[in-house]
Amino acid sequence: MQKRKQFKSFYIYIFAAIIVFAIVQFLISGQFMNDFYINTLMVIVINIILAVSLHLVIGITGQFSIGHAGFLAIGAYSAAIITMKLQLPFALSLLVGGIAAAVAGLIIGIPSLRLKGDYLAIATLGFGEIVRITLLNINYVGGASGMLVDNLTTWPWAFWCMVITILVIVNFTNSTHGRACISIRENEIAADAMGINTTYYKVMAFVIGAFFAGVAGGLYSHNFYIISPGSFGFMKSFDILIFVVLGGLGSLSGSVIAAILLSIVSTFLQDYPETRMIIYSLVLILMMIFRPQGLLGTKEITSFFKKGKSSDGGKHDGKQTVA
Question: In what way does this protein cross or attach to the membrane (predicted)?
Fold first, then answer.
């Protein structure tokens, strides 16, 4: 019965995704949307992928990482090299970008994920800055001047990459591996005492999150005509972090909603970067005062349509997990 409900929900989500895709594709094909709105749509989709991938690391596993822009940069430059330097297909560039970021996530994850809290945050921040400075000094990819990239990111590519990312993260979260990650988030010492290999699962979540950040990087680099290391600094990691914190730590749908709202705000305030950061700061301060758990907390948006059922991130079928 439970599996039947899961399959029913799966097909409902897929059907809804197809409807949304068809409507937007019709608007684009019929030229009802100009380039500005199309570009805004691409930015929203890319930010959703980034928010969902970081949600797995912070919201589900509880590892405070602020180096996500480093994985975005690795994916962006790897994908750009594949298409612009090697003249290979765009699809392959996205895959290579994701794999390159995942390998980087594995390399940095094994030593750094033994750290906790602020120490982990500092380590991941340092990783992001190392990536940025390294790219600044590589002439092959343009150095500080940046790298010219063809505009190959289209609505179908961006949308279905987003759908695949969400499906993978949702299924991972609902699997035994995801439950192990949630137990680590709730109480790492208790999870370790129960026999869960905490380092293994933290690295696994880190690598999966890095992979999809790399895919987002490939879409990002081919959505604009030029990429430069300055686009992947600390503030970019901070932007992605805000999506997850504002939406609610542990809520995937909350991260998606926050990514949509803040992407729209950021797009319309792109000529006023100082104002944008002031608004971000005010939103976070008000959120910490009046709703510290975020927009949805650990709940998913579907929980509001279910009577008498809880969808907390640390619970499953009304029972507390091993955490």
Answer: Multi-pass membrane protein
Tens-place pLDDT, residues 143-155: 888 899 999 999 9
Q: 89 lies in a domain?
A: yes
Burial of 72 (0-12, 13-18, 19+ CB in 10 A): buried
Higher pLDDT, 171 or 300: 171
CB 251 within 8 A of CB 108: no
Give pTM, 2 decimals.
Answer: 0.89
Residue 215 · residue 97 · CB < 8 Å: yes
In a domain, 19, yes or no: no
pLDDT at 118: 80
Which residue, 142, 131, 145, is CA-closest to 232?
131
Query: What are 117-132's pLDDT values in tens digits?
Result: 788 889 899 999 999 9
How many folded domains does the chain comprise?
1
What is the rounded average pLDDT for all residues in the chain? Answer: 86
Q: How many CB atoms are located within 10 Å of the residue 260 CB?
A: 17
Domain extent, residue 88, equals 34-322
| Integer angstrom CA distances of residue 281 from 239, 277, 291 | 11, 6, 15
> Whats the size of the chain, residue-wise?
323
16 domain residue, yes or no: no
**98 assigned to some structural domain:** yes
C-alpha pair distances (Å), 71 with each of 38, 192, 251, 302: 25, 28, 22, 30
CATH number (domain holding residue 272): 1.10.3470
